[in-house]
Every structure is written in structure tokens, then in C-alpha cells.
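Usage

Read records sequentially. Each one opens with the input sequence:
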Amino acid sequence: MPPPTNAQPETHPLVGQPVAAIDTPALVVDLDAMERNLQRMAEFARKHGIRWRAHAKMHKSAAIALLQVRSGAVGVCVQKTAEAEAMAAGGVLDVYISNEVVAPHKLARVARLAHRLAADGGRLGIAVDSLEGIERLAAAMNEARLATRTPAVIDVYVEIDVGQGRCGVPPGPAGATLALAIRRHPALRFAGLQAYHGRAQHVRSPAERRALIARSSEQVLLTCRLIEAEGVPVPLVTGAGTGSMVCEAASGIWGELQAGSFLFMDADYARNERDPAQPAFEHALFVKTQVVSTCAQHAVCDAGHKSHAIDSGLPLVHAPDGEHVLEYANGGDEHGILRAAPGARLPELGRLLWLVPGHCDPTVNLHDQLVGVRGGLLRGTVERVFRVDARGALT
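and closes with the structure output:
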């Protein structure tokens, strides 16, 4: 496969080539499966009358983000300032940094981006969980206002900790204090609450996930009531992920879902027991690999840990031909060890195989491009190559 380029998708040298032309290892998107996932998500959001904001930290591609917006997403959310900048540079006009930013030089970038998006008819949002963070954000926005002589405003969400145990103030009075502090600054607009329960996403049982989000719902509702008691309306509660989104959608409290992984699905999400109310999302992201060595006990492929993340476990070996049922074992940075299941046979030298990554987000961040294939993994054709615009966008 040729090295990544900045060429437009339709002019990339791989476009029009058969799947066999994709060198290994490579990150490949089954476009048919991805589009079915998009359609199912859009239908779910419409059915429940809820907004959907795609989490672009998963795919890190502005082109894919625009596909999601055209499918019904109101915009995207990201975790890093650099990711927000990459999305805006690619034409995404509604971006939310669902994370705290406190470094003055980063807040200056946030403020400049807020003004650029506002000038193009867009908007930027950000999360806060401290009075100091609010003051620093307001100072950065005021400096940008003076520099541009325009009165841009940034949407600010108060993050409350509903079970993640990471960022956010405790549910209750602290949220009201921050909401009132935001309202004191003309360059800041109180936009609502950020309430994301990350730990609930990979709880395997639907009943356990529902119980966790039921508890989160009580905490969100308490915080909303305390803020509203101060005479401040709460315009929106945003949060939820692919694993728990049916719970937040059914609660009547969340007005926006931040699901992201549903688009590609990974091996770890496949281990969740599907809630009957959740759409049947399919695997759409694969690492194409090739067998480079064989022996009587195992085969070796050329996709090691440099091609897929292992923080959520090793990849699954996808078997579209149904012939080779294999287990992937740790082979190091550049290799994977493949062992056959009982009754199955090992693949021969040169055989092409497909891996479902354990965790899609950090896997994408290892690659410069996503090769989009139409017509299936066995006999499909490369239709589009997506650049991973925000690869390494960690600041």
C-alpha cells in the first residue's frame, strides 16, 4: 500500500483497487457495516427524540465526522483541544470539548477556536469542574474578544461525577455554584451539565448497566433542581456512551447522547450482553494482516501491538470465510501468534486475515489512514481513504 498522502479521497492511489491491493498491516473500514451502524444510530435518536453528538475522539477523522453530521448528528465531541482544532479545520462547525482545559496557553487556543467557529456560524463548547477553571476560561475568552473585537461566546457545561470517578464535581450544590459562576461572565454561556458514566459502558449485564444509570439519573436530577432553584435553567444534560445509551435515552433526563464506538464497534464492546432496546451494531473496523510464518503448532501474522491497542484485551480474529477459527495471542510489537480452535486448521503461509481490535479509539490513533472498503472484506473494492486528521492530537 502506498504511504499516506494528503490527497483527496477520490484521488488516492488505492481507490478503485481490490481488497487484495491493501498492504498489511492496515486499518480497514467496512463501509457497508459502518453505514448500517450510522443509520441505526440515527433512527434510535429520532425514535427517542434525543440529540446525538458523535464522539470523534474515536475515529479522529473530520471526513467521518461530517458523514455523521449528514446522518443526523448535531456535531461532535472530543477530549483534546488539538482534536477540536483538527475537526474545525476539516469543516466541522459544532464541536464540544467534553473535558477540562486549565493551562493558559491551551485556553488561549480554545478561545481563538471559539471565535473562528463563531465567525463561520459554528459554536464551541467545553466542560468545567472548578471555579478556577471558569475564571481562567473567562480570562482567555476576554483576551480573544479584545484581539478580534468580536463578542464570541463559548458554551460551558458543568461536569458532575456520576460514577466515572475521574473529573467532575460531586452531584448536588457544587454544580449550582459553578453554574452561577459561569453566568457572571458575558463571554461564557451556561449550556448545561456533562454527565458521563464511563465505568458503566463495559459492564456486561444490561440489568447492571440500567441500575448504574438509574443511580446517575437521581444524581443528575438533584443537581438540575438545585441549579433551577437558583433561577438558572439547565438547557441540556449531555453524556452517555455506546454501552449505556439506551438507559440515558429512556431516562427523560439526558437530552444528548455522546456515543462514539458504535460506529466501528470493537472486541471489548462485543463482550457486552446486548440490551434488547439497543440497535444491533456491527463490527466495521478491522486490521488487515497476513500470515508470514507457520509451524505445526501455530501461525504468525504481521500485525503486532504497533498496529492495534491492547488496553482492553487482544483482538479477535474475524473469520468471514468460516474456515479458519483462530485465537490471537501476544507475539510482540510486530507479530501475532495464531492458534487454531479444536477441529479447525491453521491458515497457510500468505493467507490474509482480519482482526477486530480490542479497543477502537487508541487503535485508530496508531494509523495515518483508514481504508474504506465497499462490498465486503473478501471481494470488496477500496472506495475511499480517510485521513486520521487528529492522530497524535494529545494537547
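Summary fields computed downstream for this record:
- The CA atoms of residues 88 and 117 lie 7 Å apart.
- The chain has two domains: 9-27+281-387, 32-266.
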